[in-house]
Amino acid sequence: MSEIQNDAVASVHYTGTFPEDGEVFDSSEGRDPLTFLVGHRNMIPGFEAEMLGAKVGERRTFTLEPARAYGEREEANVVTFPRAEFAEVEAEVPLEVGMTLVAGMEDGPRPFTITEVRDDEVVADFNHQLAGRSLTFAVEVVEVRDATEDELAHGHAHGPGGHHH
Ligand code: ZN
Predict the structure, then answer these.
(1) Count of domains in the chain?
(2) Which of 25, 33, 54, 60 is the most exposed place for a label (fewest CB within 10 A)?
(3) What is the pTM of this model?
(4) Are 73 and 132 in contact (CB under 8 A)?
(5) How many CB atoms lie within 10 A of CB 116?
């Protein structure tokens, strides 16, 4: 397999920036390349769509609007909790605006960011931190290979840069 397509395992170096000001929000620079199984919802949708057909050594730069990245921000995802529910956390560390925590919900763990700490309440934002943002990615394809049967069965890549288990 020599180009990015569904059921391939792709390794890429990437740098993500905000198109408004060029600020870098994430980059694989200085780390292992990002390795992912293509076509199994491991990546935000626009990223894979823009990289389909790319060959090893190829570089692509593209900008994704929120709908093809982490979605729009939704006010319904901003929730106010009684501060008492954070008693266990506060016993360990002071609550601060910008702190990221994980809530155990019925449908599994969900990360959130504290946006306000009041005397008796805490405001938690469950939106992804990149929701509502347009994102520019500069990507270089490092390696493309066939997925193994195990990887296809699990729905994710194994080995360096992928899942270890
Ligand atoms: Zn696995």
Answers:
(1) 2
(2) 25
(3) 0.82
(4) yes
(5) 13
| Residues within 5 A (CB) of ion ligand 1 | 154, 163
Cα of 118 from ligand 1 centre, angstroms: 42
- Asked whether the beta carbons of 133 and 18 are under 8 A apart, the reply is yes
Q: Which residues pair with 26 in a beta bridge?
A: 16
**CATH code of residue 110:** 2.40.10.330
- Is there a single domain that holds both residue 20 and residue 47? yes
pLDDT digits (tens, 9 = 90+) for 118-127: 999 999 999 9
DSSP designation for 33? P
Residue whose token pair is 């066939």: 146
User: Residue 132 is encoded by which pair of tokens?
Assistant: 């509502």
Confidence check: pLDDT of 161 > 80: no
The confidence band for 160, taking pLDDT boundaries of 50, 70 and 90, is: confident
Three-state SS string across 35-98, please?
Answer: EEECCCCCCCHHHHHHHCCCECCCEEEEEECHHHCCCCCCHHHEEEEEHHHHHHHHHHCCCCCC
**What is the rounded distance in angstroms from the CA atom of residue 93 to the CA atom of residue 36?**
35
Report the separation in Å between the CA atom of 147 and the middle of ligand 1, taken as the mean of its atom positions.
11
